[in-house]
Amino acid sequence: LRQPEGQAIIAKVKKLTKLAGLSLDLGTTMSSPPLAWVAENPNTATIILGASRPEQIVENLKTLQVLPKLTPEVMVN
After folding, report:
1. CA separation for the pair 6, 12 (Å, rounded)
2. Is 41 helix (H, G, I), strand (E, B) or coil?
3. Distances from the Cα of 69 to the Cαs of 18, 22, 37, 39, 45, in angstroms?
C-alpha cells in the first residue's frame, strides 16, 4: 500500500467512504449525490443517464428527490 498504486487505492476508498456518508445523510443511494451534483452544476447543460436495466433508470430518476437537499455546504464537499 506504500507504492503509488496502493496510495491510489487508499485515496479511492476514502472518497467512496465520504460518498457513502453523504448518501446516508441525504437518505439516498450512492449514485444519487454525484448525479445531483452534476444536475446542480451551472456548467452542466445535459445529463445523459446510462443503464442496462429499467430499475437503474428509476433509481437515477430518484436523484430529483435529492436536489432540494443540496445545500451550498453539500455542493462544496
Report:
1. 10
2. coil
3. 17, 11, 11, 13, 21
